[in-house]
Write a structure and sequence with these properties.
homodimer, 201 residues, mainly alpha, Arc Repressor Mutant, subunit A, Tetracycline Repressor, domain 2
């Protein structure tokens, strides 16, 4: 991690986003508990007092990292629902792409999301859990609607949702941005496998 | 967690296994860092000095939990290879079943395995990583051999291995032993989905 110079005239929203991004990288590289507010301030290139102005503590950073993530993918799927015109097979691909692309747009965040959920304050944990359920329900709806309209065969939608989430979310353990295959390519490959299977045609 | 009475005349191997099992449950329920050696001794129903006789510290417990897990699934697959007579499609089902069944035979272990790997001492981490790679290679071999003998179509074996591991390992986030579907049933359902897909026939 190289030290980042503090950018002049960065507005509050941009600064918060910058701090979240840098903190996520540090948490990912060194661990949440092992990373101090000092480390974060140093990596952002601001004084510790300035960091505390934006985030009263690491907990608040952890909360925002969780909420940013889940709010983003919910909004992406909601936009597609509102826009209309997608088949359920296309919706499934889009959801898988959204999830895997987080590894490129938010490197390190998903690891924090999955492994530090327990450390969120109870009220935030409840809110994040409710949104996770909401997102899973969005996926289940795509699978249910698609079963009715002939996009998918006669499937157990709950188990299929867990299979899809498993393929997509597990990328947090192995996918590295900038590698041989991009997120969209991996998503499309997984999607084609879950659609048509790996047995010979 | 109810307190367990210390069993009389338990031999060393059985006692170590009992301690590992109880510790895994506590780590899973309360977190690795939040669980003390006192908590573990109390839950097993032995004196703290006895616990230290078997495990000089929590680190050693974490090490054994990791090694127990990975050694077990490697041995299970190696036995099948040695026995012979399995098709590659059957081998794939067996691997997925082995992985998901860990949720029933070793509840809580997989969460520890995936989320506390970083906290292992470096030499142990290297050893566990090498065995994880060995296990992934066993899966890749099944997929490669199966592509050659016509069990599977023309697949990218490395990406397919990640899809399979994702479906199976992600169960650590949602599967609860004693629920509506057992591990073998979930494994068979996921296996049939990855084999033949969810698109209408």
């Amino acid at each position: 991690m190289t030290q980042r110079p503090a950018t002049q005239r960065m507005d509050g929203t941009a600064r918060r986003a910058q701090i979240r991004r840098v903190a996520a990288e540090l948490f990912d590289a060194s661990g949440y508990r092992e990373t101090s507010m000092d480390d974060i301030a140093g990596a952002v290139g601001i004084k510790k007092a300035s960091l505390y102005y934006y985030f009263p503590g690491k907990d608040q950073l952890l909360v925002e990292l969780h909420e940013e993530m889940i709010d983003l993918i919910i909004a992406q799927q909601q936009e597609r629902i509102d826009a209309g015109g997608h088949t359920n097979q296309q919706m499934l691909l889009a959801i898988m792409t959204d999830l895997i692309r987080l590894q490129e747009t938010h490197p390190g965040h998903l690891k924090i999301f999955f492994e530090h959920f327990r450390e969120l304050p109870p009220d935030v944990r409840a809110s994040v859990r409710q949104k996770r359920d909401q997102y899973r329900d969005m996926l289940v709806t795509v699978l249910s609607d698609g079963t009715r309209d002939g996009s998918f065969g006669d499937i157990d939608v709950d188990l299929t949702a867990m299979a899809v989430l498993g393929m997509a979310n597990w990328t947090y353990q192995w996918f590295r941005p900038g590698g041989r295959r991009g997120a969209a390519e991996v998503a499309e490959y997984f999607w084609s496998q879950i659609l048509t299977g790996i047995a010979p045609a």
